[in-house]
Amino acid sequence: MTGTGTAAGQQTSRETWGGRARSWLRVTGSVGPLGIAVAVLWLSLIVLLPLAALTFHSFDEGWAGFWDAVTAPASLDSLRVTILVSIAVALINVVMGTLVAWVLVRDEFPGKGIVNALIDLPFALPTIVASIVLLSLYGPQSPIDVQLNATQPGLIVALTFVTLPFVVRSVQPVLIEADREVEQAAVSLGADNWTTFRRIILPSLTPAIISGGGLAFARAIGEYGSVVLIGGNIPGRTQMTSQYIQQQIEVDRPVNAAAVSVALLAISFLTLLVLRLFADRIARKEQASR
């Protein structure tokens, strides 16, 4: 009986594993295998192959060369400045982007359509133009007597400008689809505006806010055009990693530039991955609580 039971258990295990494998390999959807193959091929040509080539190039001098390039004092200084500034930009966008989205969805005022269209302007405007505009406003000849040229606050202002749409456009659809009856019920039960926002509205907005903040961080960490003029490119103070990479290319150190680029990509990817998993977990908890 024992042998028969063991054999039956093994058979059941094999059937379970086979079922899981077939489920994992099953192709579903409207486009079919051909559409999926085209999408994967396109993604490979546009994203995966260039990233793979960059990664291989960064190790042309071996692991030691890669590590030396990434941990060089100037490289670490630029990474420190970039990460700190990008975190500040993401946090500012989380607060102000959510506020702007709220105003655009919940309030009515003259020119609302124009303001809503202006939110997307940073996507259409060449970032070097943004740097020129900000330099003319906050540079040495500032008409408002505010000097932010070659300072970290100047970097934050420039990067906040180019990353503004991410949180706004992430939060807007969620606010539009929110169930206003739940909010009205909370108010009728005596909840004030802050309590209603904190207990009812914010939990449903959190995944979108995290997603938008993560995208803003990822965009800021790799930005070049908007900071190239107003930043000043001062090593250890205002030199962003993108500027350091450009500097390495100019002095004919392409392997060093590739190594630091891979490190920057890894930081950005891991940040987005962690935030995505965190946002998905919050979304699942929010769904389960309903």
UniProtKB/TrEMBL annotation:
Bilayer disposition of the protein: Multi-pass membrane protein
GO cellular component, as recorded: plasma membrane
Superkingdom assignment: Bacteria
Entries under InterPro entries matching the protein: CysT_permease (IPR011865), MetI-like (IPR000515), MetI-like_sf (IPR035906), Sulph_transpt2 (IPR005667)
Record has Transferase as a keyword: no
Residues that span the membrane, as ranges: 34-59, 79-105, 117-138, 150-168, 200-221, 257-279
Keyword entries, A-Z: Membrane, Sulfate transport, Transmembrane, Transmembrane helix, Transport
Cited Gene3D superfamilies: MetI-like (1.10.3720.10)
Similarity section: Belongs to the binding-protein-dependent transport system permease family. CysTW subfamily.
Classification via NCBIfam families: 3a0106s02, permease_CysT
The protein's role, per its UniProt record: Part of the ABC transporter complex CysAWTP (TC 3.A.1.6.1) involved in sulfate/thiosulfate import. Probably responsible for the translocation of the substrate across the membrane.
Assembly description: The complex is composed of two ATP-binding proteins (CysA), two transmembrane proteins (CysT and CysW) and a solute-binding protein (CysP).
The protein's name in its UniProt record: Sulfate transport system permease protein CysT
UniProt source species: Nocardia transvalensis
